[in-house]
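User: Show me a protein chain along with its predicted structure.
Assistant: Here is one chain, sequence first, then structure tokens.
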Amino acid sequence: MPKQTALPPTLPPRLVTREVAAAYVCVSPNTFDEMVGRGIMPKPRILVGKRKAWDLKEVDVAADALPHDGEDHAAADEGWG
């Protein structure tokens, strides 16, 4: 992730790369891609051209919807949105 010198160090970026979004939810980028494909994690936002980024607010909502250990996993398979 490029260093954001315009932001104060206490203000994290809201939109992040695939690698950062994957690390944020403790999975590999390939697993994150699979979760996006299955609708468990949100699709990226389009910044400019082909450049994409994930909104951490949306990733938080998706992470909150993940089942706890021992809960029914069918709810997580219903997908994002």
